[in-house]
Automatic annotation (TrEMBL):
The protein, known as: Uncharacterized protein
Family affiliation: Belongs to the cation diffusion facilitator (CDF) transporter (TC 2.A.4) family.
Matches recorded under SUPFAM superfamilies: Cation efflux protein cytoplasmic domain-like, Cation efflux protein transmembrane domain-like
Residues passing through the membrane, by range: 23-46, 58-79, 99-117, 129-151, 171-188, 200-220
Pfam families associated with the record: Cation_efflux (PF01545), ZT_dimer (PF16916)
């Protein structure tokens, strides 16, 4: 079908407002600050206790620090508007950061898992010390993590930033190793069961590996221009199908980059209407798609309907 020369494009839907950008940056800075403080606290707790479960939690927090720093950089860089060298924006920075972070998580989890298995196979359990101090430090860590999750939840709801939302989910998962370390230290102190420490560390390592594979897979798929989720594609198709004035559509194509979804859509319109009428139909359709899916960048091509 021949094209009407005009196309309908979205006006940078991912460009956050100044307020939203500040909120997203505040969540990223809070994440970096809390992670750095947790690393320092857990380093001291590990030195005092020698507990492998604390080491697992420490490694998790060290990875968190890297992830949070990368996430903050990605938030700031991805928020930059499109320019001559990056016509589709900078949102792929989020995927590059996530892929690198997943590799770091895998390496850390593998080391913790190996150490846990080595201790479990040892003839004598590894002795722990200063469990009370370790419990206090890990309790403070849990409170700090909970406060960070609360703030990230508020920011994610206010701005819809998926990097902040993903970081929030990551820290929710971090609560388990922290609480597990508290439990291991308490059991060791109360009953002398030192092996529980290695068991908790092994569980934490398994969870870290599962999370790394999930994050890495999502980042890899986005870098390889994988299409948007099926429910998003079906939703856009439904909007186009039911939009007044649209006689049909074809070549609906999508790809993802970071938190952004790029949409390319051909719609079929009556050939006897004016260019202004065709433009208005396309503009109204674009607005509907952006309202339903705010994280999209939409290009609509208009074809002549040959019914």
């Amino acid at each position: 079908m021949p094209y009407i020369k005009a196309t309908q494009t979205a006006a940078k839907p991912m460009a956050y407002s100044e307020t939203d950008t500040k909120l997203n940056a505040s969540a990223g800075l809070a994440s970096v600050g809390v992670a750095a403080l947790l690393v320092a606290l857990k380093l001291w707790a590990l030195w005092q206790t020698g507990a492998l479960s604390v080491a697992a939690s420490l490694a998790d927090s060290a990875v968190d620090l890297l992830i949070s720093a990368g996430g903050l950089a990605a938030i700031l860089y991805a928020a930059k508007p499109a320019d001559d060298d990056h016509a589709f924006g900078h949102s792929s920075a989020e995927d590059l950061a996530a892929l690198g972070q997943s590799l770091v998580i895998l390496a850390s989890a593998t080391l913790i898992g190996y150490s846990a298995i080595h201790r479990l196979m040892a003839p004598e359990p590894h002795p722990l010390s200063a469990q009370g101090a370790g419990i206090v430090v890990m309790g403070i860590s849990a409170l700090l993590t909970g406060g960070l999750i609360w703030w990230q939840s508020r920011v994610a709801r206010a701005t819809g930033n998926k990097v902040v939302a993903a970081d929030r989910l990551h820290y929710l998962g971090d609560l388990l190793p922290t609480l597990g370390a508290i439990g291991a230290l308490w059991v060791s102190r109360a009953f002398g069961w030192g092996q529980i420490d290695s068991m908790v560390a092994l569980i934490a390592a398994a969870l870290m590996i599962a999370g790394a594979l999930r994050i890495g897979s999502g980042a890899w798929n986005a870098l390889m221009d994988r299409a948007a989720p099926n429910e998003v594609i079906d939703g856009i198709a439904k909007i186009a199908r039911e939009h007044p004035g649209v006689r049909g559509f074809h070549d609906l194509k999508t790809r993802t980059a970071g938190a952004q979804i790029f949409v390319n859509l051909h719609i079929e319109l009556d050939g006897d209407q004016t260019l202004e009428q065709a433009h208005d139909i396309g503009a109204a359709l674009k607005r509907k798609i952006l309202i339903a899916y705010p994280q999209t960048d939409v290009i609509i091509h208009k074809d002549v309907w040959r019914g």
